[in-house]
Write a structure and sequence with these properties.
Length: 555
């Protein structure tokens, strides 16, 4: 049988340790005995089987086995092939075999095949593991027994309680201090009860103050108007509003000599801030006849008064009374609706009739301006109310969007506001009656006369330039008309720039004094001033006093 050649340095094979007769091929292999030093076991002898050594019966050309580096393994293959183990290799391997025997503790385990030893070791490990985790591990925190007392025995006897000491004379309160403490506690209790009862209400917003002021204002009637201190001022303001309606309400193609009876040619008017309907007859007397009127105001009581006044006009029409005379005396009363709504914070499109007539939401910055086609109203009016929208930028822009979205192409936006130019002059102290404060940065904060008063909530800038353009609040008082209502400055140039963003172009701007000087000799407007009481019919004198003339100069 062919065998592998060892890599030992000698050339002749070592003699066998024992000699024995040749065995039969079917007989078991002879038992080899070891005659070496005492207390040592012979090396394990591996059987030459085809399952463990298939390369032993294969030809030398088919064996591709890697050469072992250990001389013991090479000589072990020689033993399996039937050759004796050299003596020098046995002597070399004796210390290693003795060390393995001492570690295992028995000769039987050393003689077992490697596979059987690994299998038994794994079974033993499984048994040890199952035995190790058969019972739960002890708890980390020891549990207390039921009969164990949870409170540990005291290490010493408790000390007796200490005797309380009486406060000294310096710690005692005097009679005056006790009374003061009782009064303080009583005041705090009363303040808490008042707060819980709602006596201390939070400050109202500006729109709520304005709404409540005009709702609480009573209608005094025609007799009061004849004896009022501001009779001439009220008549003059109404004449200015009528002048604006007469000059700018008609369409550009309107011919007053040939008025049209076609309902499609009648005006459609939106009056934002209509109040109690004081301008209804002015619109009935407009040069171009009004077909529909929509009045909107934030004060619901004022809206109720306006609706009653309109119903009174309809009843007078049915009785055959033309009214006060003038151009609208023989006309039919237009159709009208009234709604209570704040036009500074809400959209006019929330009113069904406004949507039906026409409202364009694409106007102004942020909208699809190239798709804007305009609304359906010919005129939008805003008399003595637009300054309330200048509390914030959002209110101002919402107001302008309602105006521009409601107007048709070529429509007119008319109104009256306090003049920011006059307010700036008074803040700079140009009037001899005004006294500048000591602070060089602050301007005049308050001025007025016997019938009106203007007072800023905070000191205005002395230069008279209001920046930013929002929130410059002042309280306005007018005898028998306005009781300290908060209003806001409308910087004109800034307002003009914002209005252009919404497609509105300026055509006319005049102070009330200039309007009177330019239009007082107009044939129709002169008759109107006499009929409204601006000029006395008996002597032709001007009906306004000096204080009234100064008050209307603020606009």
């Amino acid at each position: 049988m062919p065998t592998d050649q060892p890599d030992a340095p000698h050339s002749a094979p070592a003699p066998p340790l024992l000699s024995s007769p040749p065995a039969h091929p079917s007989a078991p292999p002879p038992v080899q005995r070891y005659s070496g030093p005492p207390h040592s076991s012979p090396p394990p002898v591996r059987e030459n089987t085809t399952s463990q050594h298939p390369a032993a019966d294969s030809p030398p050309s088919s064996r591709k086995r890697r050469a072992s580096r250990s001389p013991v393994r090479r000589e072990a293959r020689r033993v399996n092939a039937g050759q004796p183990i050299p003596q020098h290799l046995l002597e070399q391997d004796i210390p290693q075999r003795a060390k393995r025997r001492r570690q295992t503790g028995s000769d039987d385990s050393a003689r077992q095949p490697p596979q059987q030893r690994r299998r038994r070791d794994s079974v033993r490990d499984r048994e040890s593991r199952s035995y190790r985790y058969r019972s739960p591990p002890p708890p980390i925190i020891p549990r207390k027994r039921k009969d164990e007392d949870p409170t540990p025995p005291p290490s010493r006897q408790p000390s007796p309680p200490r005797k309380r000491k009486l406060p000294s004379a310096s710690a005692r309160l005097s009679a005056m201090e006790r009374d003061l403490s009782r009064q303080t506690v009583a005041r705090n209790d009363e303040a808490e009860k008042a707060r819980l009862a709602g006596a201390t209400a939070p400050p109202e917003r500006v729109e709520e103050v304005v709404r409540s002021h005009y709702n609480d204002k009573k209608e005094l009637g025609k007799e009061w108007r004849q004896t009022s201190k501001i009779k001439g001022l009220r008549s003059f303001n109404n004449w200015v509003k009528s002048t604006l309606i007469q000059k700018f309400s008609p369409n550009d193609d309107f011919d007053p000599r040939r008025p049209s009876r076609d309902p499609n040619d009648h005006l459609v008017v939106l009056d934002m801030g209509c109040g109690k309907g004081g301008d209804l007859f002015k619109w009935k007397s407009a040069p171009q006849e009004v077909g529909y009127y929509l009045g909107v105001d934030s004060a619901d009581v004022s809206i109720a008064h306006a609706r009653d006044r309109y119903d009174s006009m309809r009843r007078d029409q049915q009785r055959g009374r033309g009214g006060r005379g003038g151009a609208g005396g023989n006309r039919q009363v237009f159709e009208a609706d009234f709604h209570a709504m704040d036009c500074w914070t809400n959209s006019i499109a929330s009113i069904p009739m406004a949507r039906r007539i026409g409202y364009d939401p694409n106007v102004g910055p942020g909208g699809r301006s190239r798709f804007a086609q305009g609304g359906g109203f010919d005129v939008v009016s805003m008399m003595f109310c637009m300054h309330y929208a200048f509390e914030t930028e959002a209110k101002c822009r919402n107001m302008l969007k309602n105006v521009a979205g409601s107007l048709k192409t070529g429509g007119r936006f008319i109104g009256t506001i306090p003049s920011s130019d006059i307010i700036s002059q008074r803040v700079r102290g140009t009037d001899s009656c005004d006294k500048l404060p000591e602070n060089e940065e602050h301007g005049v904060q308050e001025w007025g006369n016997s019938i009106y008063r203007v007072k800023f909530s905070k000191p205005p800038p002395r230069a008279g330039t209001f920046r930013p353009m929002w929130g410059w609040e002042y309280n306005f008082f007018l005898e028998e008309a306005v009781e300290e209502v908060p209003e806001y400055v409308v910087p004109w140039e800034a307002f003009r720039g914002i209005a252009e963003d919404y497609g509105l172009e300026l055509e006319y701007k005049k102070l009330f004094h200039d309007v009177w000087r330019e239009e007082k000799n107009h044939p129709e407007l002169k008759l109107l001033s006499e009929r409204m009481g601006v000029i006395r019919r008996d002597n032709g004198e001007f009906a306004l006093g000096d204080d009234e003339w100064e008050a209307c100069g603020e606009c």
